[in-house]
Design a protein that fits this description.
CATH topology of one domain: SH3 type barrels
Mean pLDDT: 89
Structural class: alpha+beta
Shape: flat
Largest sheet: 5 strands, antiparallel
Strand content: 5-15%
Distance between the termini: 54 Å
CATH class of one domain: Mainly Beta
Amino acid sequence: MLKENADKDATLRHAAAYALSLLPQEWDAAKVARLNRSERLGVLLSLRKNKDAGIALFLGDADSRLVDEAIRAINDLDITGAGSALTDYSNRYTKEFSGTTPNEIMFRRLINTNFRLGSPQSALRLVQFGANAKLPTEFRRLALRAVALFPNPPSIDPTLGIYRPLEPRNRDRIRSAVEGPLVDIFKNATGDVAAAATRAIGVYGIQLDPNLLQARIRDGRQPVEVRQTAMEQLFANTAFSDKQLLKTIIDGYEPAMAAEAARIWVERHPDEIMQAVSLLLDRPDEEDDLLRAAYSILGRAKGEESAAALVSELKELAARTLYRTVHLDLYEAAQHRQDDSVQAALNDVDDFLASTNRTVFDFAREGGNPVKGQGVFENQGICRKCHQGSRGGGDAGPSLKNIARLRRPKEILQAILEPNAEIVPGYGIAAITLNDGTTIAGTPMEEDDAILSMKTPTGEVERIAKSDISNRTPSVSSMPRWRKFFRNKICAI
């Protein structure tokens, strides 16, 4: 049946694979080799249905699509007994390899399978992925990030977004396997790979040469993230103390470096908060990142001096002399303080907004970080479930690929805060009741004076005569209202 169907009808293939899964099966490499591609796919799917470890046979299949199906099944279903075969399969990417670069979706699963296995050997394999210069930088970074998370695994599976908790691992055992290779990556790599390796080194408490770290910090040819991570690692060593180095960085390095140096200063010297904040606020460039770092520190601080500094900044906001791109950052930081003076200054800001017919929502229209925002959209899952972006997505909501050309910032903000304010044709949800009592729910697509076209949840479009409709609910958006309670009012996330 599978052979005759030749993958033309997915329903027939499913029926055959399901029937196979109900029958006693014993497959080996020789038996599988006698089958054609359609037959092998059906056998693979039947083994997947039963979570049979025999599915590992297909990791060596000549058809790359069947290999991908086997990788997906072993990782996604956590098939007992097949995980070790998949980690062995991934050994090919620990060194130079022939052929094309692996598919990103599948390589993430190779990383995840090694991560879930949890052995020192699988941790070492991830480090070797990170060291392999033939792999794309993003693959290497992801592998090293998994190494950093290895001792204390998150409860959410990163490839599926579902709850799949793992037990903590012995940090010392893992460290003994990864220390040497991680240090080698730090010495030889640059950019994101070097930064990811440095973070992992910090997780395992591996001590790097302070002189080497300082050289990295001062090397302006290195990306800021690498130098930032080197600074974190340098000052993570409590035996190292160089306040002058921190002051030099806050005074004249890039804003991101200065912000991180100020955070470290406050962490190491909590009684000198205002010294670090003053260095940030007094810099002549006054870039957004500097101000945000200062506000973040002030929002967590205590005492009259730090409260007075926040009040001063809030007064600048109300006087319209503060960059609009940091208004929300300042307002949020001030919300963390219970000082009467800060609360009074916040009330003044609220009065200022009211006098100009604005609300705190308007603060969200300025500033922000496009790169981080793109990361949230592409990796969170809930956004792309309905909306198309630059890397694909769903079609339950309008495409956002060119949204900035089609809508003004105010309109985009309103669509997030009040999804039902304006429903884009073809994307709302409504219910109609016919004269005979039948109810139809779906998305109104097109209509004229006589006919309404409704797209049902199954994807079919029904043409309904309006004369047959006795009741119709207004179209509403399926998008949630992205709000949170913020002080005594509601503010945008």
